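Researcher: I need the complex structure. Ligand is manganese (II) ion. Inputs:
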Amino acid sequence: MLQETPLRSVAAGGPGEGKRPHGARPLFLISDLHLSEDIPRTVAAFEHFIRTTAEEADSVFILGDLFEYWIGDDMLSDPFVARMAALMHTLSERGVALYVMHGNRDFLLGKRFMKAAGAIWLPDPFVITAFGARITLAHGDALCTADHAYIRFRRVARSRFAQMLFLAWPFKWRHALAKRMRSASQESRSRPVSPKYDVTQEGVAALFNETGTTTIVHGHTHRPATHREPGGTRWVLPDWDLDHGERRGGYLRIDADGLRALPLD
Ligand code: MN
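Model: Output:
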């Protein structure tokens, strides 16, 4: 279901709050950090991004898979998770709006988390108007329409009823199931190899069509690129991993000059 709601900040097309001169401040977009305690260098890079890089931004958008897994907002009692939420909360305290979209690994991020992180939840897909241009934001998993088993799982997993049942389980059970699902998952840290786990032409065309936009930004596939598609331009955000081999990561900047993919500083 497509949603298009005015956002809070001026550069993102909303009415703004007038606390800071928003005018030309850029929007920063990131995704697929897969944060966990097991990847300290990636966590450090995220801390630097939030504390320093994001300082000049009007808004920060996280387009899914911020966490390696999320089995309910009771995870906030974990000290690492609480530290990450507190870190993100400093953005709104500094007048930088934070928007968080669900990914396929953290789609159970709920109201308690959003409050703790000072974040506003964004439905997937979501159309923003930034510097006069309409831009579609998505995590990207729903575009991988060749993976029929996953699309079926996604439909069930995103139903309110299934989530209610799962969240009613004891924390230990949820944790055990999440662990089993992660080890069985085809989506490994390195990029998924088979084209089955990439977006499809049909999926992309349908999203251009549904939104009436000519720009899509998404993550999920871990294949950062800028694609010219029949319907417009598709920007794929990089995943972040500074703990395994080659440094991976980066962000997308949107300002009056358009969109630009930038490396981490
Ligand atoms: Mn993903």
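Model: Summary of the prediction. Confidence is low (pLDDT under 50) at residues 15-21.
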